Structure formats: C-alpha cells, structure tokens
Amino acid sequence: MAHRCPIRSHSAALASPSEHQWGGLVRALVYLGPGSAELQDRPAAQLAHDDDVAVEIVGTGVCGTDRKILLGRFPARPGTVLGHESVGVVRETGPQVRSVGVGDRVVVNPTLYCGWCSPCRRGATNFCRHKAGTEVGVDRDGTYAEAVTLPERFVERVPAGLPFRSAVLIEPLACVLNNVEAASVTFGDTVVVLGAGPIGMLTALVAGRQARRVTLAEPDGYRLERAREHFAHVVDVAGADPVEAVAKAWGEERPSVVFDTTGTGLDAALRLVDDGGRVVVMGFDDTYSVPLRPLRLTNRGIRLIGAGDYRADTFPVAVNLAAELGAPQRPGSGTGTLLDRLVTHEFPLERYSEAFTALGGLTLGDGDGGDSGTERPPRYDALKVVIRSHSGPFGDDGWPVGV
Predict the structure, then answer these.
(1) What is the enclosing helix (H) or strand (E) of 65?
(2) Which of 145, 261, 269, 290 could connect to 200 by a Cys-Cys bridge, CB 3.0–4.6 Å?
(3) Residue 10, Cα to own-chain centre: how many angstroms?
(4) pLDDT in tens, 14-32
C-alpha cells in the first residue's frame, strides 16, 4: 500500500503580520526531515559583515531538488530553510557594498564559494572545498522566506524591465548553461533531452541555439502538451521504452548528445546516444543507480559528463541571457516569452503545500500497490511553480508595486 509523506502545516501560531517588521521576525519554510516541513517564525538575519546585503524575497521558484529533499532523495540538513531560485528587493546593505543599493531588484546566486581555496583560485568555484554549511536551501538557510542575507558577490542586479517571471528563472538558466557548455554542443549536433519539465525545456531552448536539431522526450501528458506549444520535436515516451520511442521518431539516426534532466534516465541515455556521443547527467536523485561496464563507454567512444554546479562566471551570463530571452514582447507581437510562460502557477508562502502538490506531490509507492518506498511516476499540473514571499500588491510585470 502506498503511503503519503505530507508536508506538515505549522503547529505553532505565527506572529501577526504587524510583528513581521523588517529586522524583526520573518516567516520561513523550514525542513524538518523527509516528507516534513513547516512554516515558522524566524529572526530576520542581520548584517554581520560590511559586504552583506539584506534582500526582501519577492518569490522563489520550486526546484526539483526541493521536492527530492522532501522525498528523502537528496540530502539536506534538518532545520534549514528551503528554497534557492529567488529574486527580491534590496532592503539594507553593509558599508562596503557598491554593486547594489537599497530598492534594487536582484537575483540570488545560491552557489556560494570561499574564493581562496585551490579550486576557487583556479576559477573552479563550483568545486569549492569549503561548501559545507554554504549550500543555500540545503544546509544554509534559503529563500522560502520573507528575507535572506548574503554577501554582496552572491547578489546580482536584475536587468531593467525584466518581468518577475523571467527573472525568477535566472538561476535555472545558469544550471542549464553550465551543462550545455560542458557538452560542447555545436551546430552539427543532434540532441535529445530526456524530460520536458522546466529544466528540460530550458535545456532544449539553450541547446537549440546551437544544435541543428533538438528533441524532447517526456511521459507526462501535461508536460507534453506544454512542450509542444514551444518545440517542433517532442516525443511521447509514456508506457514505452524511451529509446524505442525516440528511435521510431528519428529513424536510423541517433543523437550525438543526450541530456538526462530527470535524474533517473542514465541507462536510457547510454542506449540512445550515438557512438562517439556525449551523455550529460543533469537531474538529481540520490537513490538512483545503474550498472555500468567501462567497456560500454570505451568500445563506443561515449563520453559521460557530470558538470557539477555552475562557476561564478556563469551566473552573470545567465542574467544577460534572461534579459535577451525574457525581454517584453513588442505590442501586439504575442502573449509573452517562453521564459514568462514557463511559470504557470504562483502560490503565497502559506500555501506551500499546494505548490508541491501541483508538481506531483510527495507520494511514495512502487507503482503497483506495493510498499517498497520507490517513487510513483508523478502527475503534473504545472510547469514552473513559484512561491511568493511578498504579499503584494503587484504590477503587470509581476514585481511589487513601487519597486
């Protein structure tokens, strides 16, 4: 029998809104353990260093990693505030801060680094040796909250005129840029992306700026419908071997690059990719494993790539790309950009449970009535879901009025 892992509602009464003054208490969604989180009152983080920036959070995108944390499939520290894909408004700065000022719209770079260890000094900040306690939303308090405080170098100004829904996708774009760059995609490549969620669709969008053909493979009906609104080549792999389904659509040709954005598609990717091709593992699932014989790689010349986190210099590129992809359309030219339309649902912070329900919920089971603890294939009712920490009112661009 399948069992539910519900997100707990808060058990203690929260402070009244009047007590949530800047610098006092803030509401925050706190991770308690697998399947369990609650909304709590927390003291607002104070400026501890001269280069600190205090950000009032407007909204945070729900990442697949957040769901995996609550399913017990990605490690996180109990007691940590969840969330990391966020944008907000600067409310206070330390005396040495120069790049942003009070009132600026900003995006948070949650991939912290020390800057002085050996990897950081050679530019590999994504492999900083001092990450323990610095992973925002994992083992350092994150952004499903009304405010967060971070050093200046992890806060970037949002380009003028960029709508809120596009800005909140900057951090996912940085992840995608990192992986597409690691694959060295060229104009001669043919690409298959396993998974048509927000990361899969962003991967297809970015890779498609270079590759000659990109195909998305997805089993979920809702995501298939959304993907077909934006991409010419989309394959339904529901109830089928994804390799056979893609091969049927492609004929004898095989992709030179396969991106697995699901975290559970490595076996299919290795069977699907052409000889001499590249497989990029993007999705996270700590419980997934696949038997792998080295000869499977060496005889076929396959390169298996894990890109890790993005480097510090990738994040500003993502900001610029979001400005290009998410700039408002000319009057009468359409109903918004792909970035804008990827955000399909928004929920206030107190309705966080509904946000996770829209993304498949937190149900475990073996898919056939057993109780093995394996995850049932989720059914989605949304693409990108945003949890808003700011209560509004909001303008047409999605940002708080007056900001």
Answers:
(1) helix 64-70
(2) 261
(3) 25
(4) 655 445 555 589 999 999 9
Q: Is 46 exposed, middle or buried (0-12, 13-18, 19+ CB in 10 A)?
A: exposed
pTM value?
0.90
Single-letter amino acid code for the residue at 337: T
Half-sphere exposure of 229 (CA within 13 A, CB side): 14
Residue pair 61/171 in contact (Cβ under 8 Å)? The answer is yes
Residue written as token pair 């937190």: 362
Name residue, tokens 């983080």: 45
* CA distances to 23, 134, 163, 334, 403 from 329, in Å: 38, 38, 11, 7, 21
Spatial CA neighbour of 136 closest among 199, 77, 64, 83:
83
Q: How remote is the C-alpha of 344 from its chain's centroid?
A: 15
How long is the chain?
Answer: 403
SS3 state at 166: helix
The candidate with the shortest Cα–Cα distance to 114, out of 106, 124, 104, is 124
Q: Dihedrals φ, ψ of 118, to 5°?
A: -60, -50
* Residue 127 vs residues 68, 197, 331: alpha-carbon distances, Å: 22, 27, 44
331 contacts: CB under 8 Å, gap ≥ 6:
none
Per-residue pLDDT of 333-370, as tens digits, reads 345 678 889 999 999 999 999 999 998 877 554 333 33
DSSP 87-125: EEEEEEE-TT--S--TT-EEEE--B---S-SHHHHTT-G
Query: DSSP string of 227-275?
Result: HHTT-S-EEE-TTS-HHHHHHHHHTT---SEEEE-SSS-HHHHHHHSPT
Residue 101 in tokens = 């000022």
Return the structure tokens found at 327.
Answer: 């700039």
Neighbours of 174 (CB within 10 A): 26
Q: Over range 156-165, report the average pLDDT.
A: 95
**Structure tokens that stand for 74 in this block:** 């990605």
Measure the CA–CA gap between 138 and 134, rounded to whole angstroms.
8
CB 164, CB 397: distance < 8 Å: yes
Q: Give the whole-angstrom CA distance, residue 122 versus residue 116.
A: 9
Q: Which residue has the tokens 């493979």?
A: 217
